[in-house]
Amino acid sequence: MRHIPHRILFAALILTGPIWAQMHKVAKPEQVVRAVGVYEWTGDFAKPTASRLIPVSLFIDGKLEDAGIYVARPVPFALLSGNVYELQTAGIDKGYLDLAYAKHLQAVEATGDLAYDDGWFGYGSVKPLAAPKKAAALKPSKTLPVLTGSKGDTSHQADAKISTDASNNDDPNRPTMKRRSDNSAADASNSGTPSASTTSTGSTSADDPDRPTMKRRSDSSTSDTTTASTGSTPADDPDRPTMKRGSGSTDTSTTTSSTPNTTSGDPDRPTMKRQTSDTPTTDTGSTTASAPTPSDDPDRPTLKRHSAEDAKRAHDTNSVAGTGNLNDDPSRPNLHRGKPTSAMTETDLPKLVGIPQNLHQMVAVSDAANRDPHPFTLEWEDDAQHKTVLAKMQAMAQAQLAAYASPGTKPPAAPPAAAVKKTTTTTRTHRATPTPPSILLSDEELKAYTLSYGGAATYVYSAHTAGSGAALRYVTIVAQDNGLGELKPAIQSVTDAAHLDRTPLMRFVDVVDAEASNRASLLFELRGQNARQFGLYRVIASHSEQIFLTGTTQ
Fold it and tell me: Where is the composition biased (Polar residues) (predicted)?
């Protein structure tokens, strides 16, 4: 019998289990439409000499599409006029690019710099970021607050007179709270005019005729006799709103003549009725509101940001068709300072041709939603850390260049320790592998990033040798820290200027969050001899994966 209480407790827990359970609510997945491009310009960033936008990727419906050809009818979706791109550096906005027009170019020459001018390009004007508003500095008030009582005493004077001044209790205007007796309540309800006792004790709050009271309404109070006798109650106010149930067969004229003071007989009173299937729909405004146009669809993907006024105008179903605000007129003339971006032409926005020497590149991101910035740059702890990482990346680059110079050989590994055998006859020693001569590198760049929250440090190194033709070699190294202070290479690329068609140059552009997932990918330009592509690479645990690649410009 000792086990019976335990079994009863176990059964009770099973029965009460559903009470403790919580309902799991699945939120609607966010619809992300995000375009990524590369903005190229020459000259100053604020006032470039020539510029252009190259579309790269478009993340829509949960996958990456080629932004240069997606929904080209005839202009691609990512290059529509009016799209706004955020110009970023490692996830931080530096300015805005307002697209004015797009053009599809065809290469005139098969070789040279003009061979790269093939495909869709966008052109627009750069706008700086809005300066943050400075908060006004707080200033001390010149007048100090003073609390004045009913006697005109200030706060410090009233505190001094609380214990000595007893005249406040005799103030006739001082508000008091008293309980009302049953006899006084009965007298007030039976008499419509104040009695003598009420007049004599008019200073009390209970006998005030203007004092609001709450009473229970009896069934007989609706009759005419009771209404006439109690004409001072709020129920007889002709302007008092009332709610009554009206029947469908009640005639409006009869009701108006019999009860002219009721609100149900008002011919101008608005009413709400359910519409039946037999009732014809003749209201133009309701017809327009019930059949929204495709531009008013909230789920329609777009890259343009809409303001609150645009959203209100699109979803306002109470507006009458044919009338509205004068600002909504598309033919209404607008006055602008300067020339609007939509009216700019090639003369106002000079096109960038070929690949000049002083070419600058920056990531451009267009998203319909406003998202918080996510900086991906990893700051160096000190100069010593920068020198240590640079030395390790240079060693990897030197090994790759040495292996590229002698095809068929692997990069030299660390020489093993010489084994010494203790014998009575002879002792053999192994010669160490000679270290390859160091190659002079130019234009070295080392950048550090954190590609995700709490992710490992990722380093991108690029350099090239001196010379021309086959002697001019380019090296690109991407490595990650394994958490033990060691760098593991994820991407290693070496090529020369004479064989770019075989192995393109991996020119690092920047890191970018192409999917709005707070995880950055590496954006590279794969430049060949007469064509180029752009690719996105994801690096996780020192392993790289190419997640997207655009088509060639030929």
Answer: 317-328
DSSP letters along 51-112, please? EEEEEEEEEETTEEEETTTTT-SSS-GGG-TT-EEEEEETTEEEEEEEEEEEEEE--S-SSS
Looking at residue 364, its amino acid is A
What's the rounded Cα separation, in Å, for the pair 179 and 197?
17
The winner for highest mean pLDDT among 337-341, 348-352, 437-441 is: 437-441
Read off the pLDDT of residues 225-272 as tens digits, 9 standing for 90 and up: 444 444 445 556 677 777 766 554 444 444 444 444 444 556 677 767
pLDDT, residue 142, reads 80
Both tokens assigned to 491: 């991407």
The upper half-sphere exposure of residue 115, i.e. CA atoms within 13 Å in the direction of its Cβ, equals 12
Residues in contact with 213: Cβ distance below 8 Å, sequence separation at least 6, in sequence order:
188
Helices (H), 270-334: 284-290, 308-315
Which residues share a beta bridge with 460?
447, 478
The residue with tokens 């080392």 is 446
Report helix, strand or coil for 391: helix
The gap from C-alpha 491 to its chain's centroid, in whole angstroms, comes to: 33
Cα–Cα separations (whole angstroms), residue 553 to 118, 385, 453: 5, 41, 35
Are 156 and 144 within 8 A, CB to CB?
no
Q: Tokens at residue 129, please?
A: 């970021």
d(CA 93, CA 128): 10
Interval 10-37: pLDDT, tens? 666 565 555 555 566 776 777 899 999 9
